[in-house]
Amino acid sequence: MSNSKFNITISDTVYKRIHELNEEANEQQPLMLRIRVDAGGCSGFIYEYDLVMDYEPGDFIAEKDNAIVVIDSLSQNFINGAIIEYIEELGRSYFKITNPAAQAKCGCGNSFAL
Question: Taxonomically, which superkingdom (predicted)?
Answer without folding.
Answer: Bacteria
